[in-house]
Write a structure and sequence with these properties.
The protein has 2 domains: 83 residues; 49 residues. It is mostly helical. The radius of gyration is 20 Å and the shape is elongated.
Amino acid sequence: MTDKDLTTHCGIYCGDCPRYKARFSDMCADLLQEFETSHFSELAKIIATKNDKFEKYDDMLSLLKTINALKCEAPCRLGGGRGPSCEVIVCNKNRGIEGCWDCNDFEKCGKLDFLKPFCADAPIKNLRAVKKYGMENWAEHREKQYPWM
């Protein structure tokens, strides 16, 4: 996979994204499979009569399934991420541009606001880097995508 493949339209680098790496997702899938194979739900029902935390067993399974579903099977540029209905991808296609860095309005574009809770201003800084260094060379200059990483 090249840096170009891992560069999203909006300034995220898929190689840094936990949804793309998705080790947690694979672990959830393995745990769900183990619960199923071992028929743990039957044991959980019995344990729940003595330990009320097990009354939330089904909620835990639901959460594991939800986490598992977060996994991106491919980088955004190759059909993963938010997919072809993503507002940013649609906008880029309508404008005939490769990514937001080719648009003069990306610095103040509201279509990127959905990223702020997760990435703060990293996508904007990354878009500046793509514009400056090009898609093949920007990644070494990228911002830390998630503030907590």
